[in-house]
């Protein structure tokens, strides 16, 4: 049975994530779930026409956003740390048609000190792998995170998600 992962960023000052803020009318409005039996995090995405590249085909950039976001939440759910994307590798295997809900699943492959590699797949409406990817995250020290994102945003609630 899957459990929903709390989006802790809903209280983050000036939050408006394109991928996971449910209040972003133009965004993907994703919700994430943990499948604790197999160690995966997943979301289900119903593509809207304005996310297409060519008619009826999901834009590759949107696929990249889906992959990056699922990878982040897979990393965050396990480590409870804020990480920064350093690399996204994508293999577009089959076209991703916009006719059925898509499932995006991610699982941590490796943790090496402050680097985390997450494997993610996009499954088409037939549950076939359409896109395969690997995302690398870096878990920065407090001073670097403050420099990148702004110290003022890290209220007391968020301090526990920062690694020194």
Summarize the structure.
The protein has 164 residues and is α+β, with helices and mostly antiparallel strands. The chain is 20% helix and 30% strand. The mean pLDDT is 94.
General description of the model:
There is one protein chain. This protein has 164 residues and is of the alpha+beta class. The protein has a single domain, classed as Thiol Ester Dehydrase, Chain A (Roll). The protein has helices at residues 60-79, 142-149, 156-159, and strands at 3-4, 33-35, 40-45, 84-92, 102-112, 115-123, 129-138. A seven-stranded antiparallel sheet has the order 1-2-3-5-6-7-4, with helices on one face. The radius of gyration is 16 Å and the shape is globular.
Give the secondary structure arrangement, pairings included:
Layout: E1 3-4, E2 33-35, E3 40-45, H1 60-79, E4 84-92, E5 102-112, E6 115-123, E7 129-138, H2 142-149, H3 156-159
Antiparallel strand pairs: 1-2, 2-3, 3-5, 4-7, 5-6, 6-7
């Amino acid at each position: 049975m899957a459990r929903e992962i709390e989006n802790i960023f809903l209280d983050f000052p000036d939050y408006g994530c394109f991928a996971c803020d449910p209040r972003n009318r133009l965004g993907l409005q994703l919700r994430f779930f943990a499948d604790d039996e197999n160690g995966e995090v997943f979301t289900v995405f119903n593509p809207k026409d304005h996310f297409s590249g060519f008619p009826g085909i999901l834009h590759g950039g949107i696929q990249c956003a889906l992959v990056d976001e699922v990878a982040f939440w897979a990393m965050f759910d396990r480590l409870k740390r804020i990480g920064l994307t350093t690399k996204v590798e994508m293999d577009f295997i089959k076209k991703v048609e916009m006719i059925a809900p898509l499932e995006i699943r991610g699982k941590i492959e490796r943790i090496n000190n402050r680097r985390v590699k997450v494997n993610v797949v996009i499954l088409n409406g037939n549950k076939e792998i359409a896109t395969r990817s690997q995302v690398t995250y870096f878990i920065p020290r407090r001073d670097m995170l403050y420099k990148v994102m702004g110290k003022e945003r890290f209220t007391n609630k968020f301090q526990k998600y920062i690694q020194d």
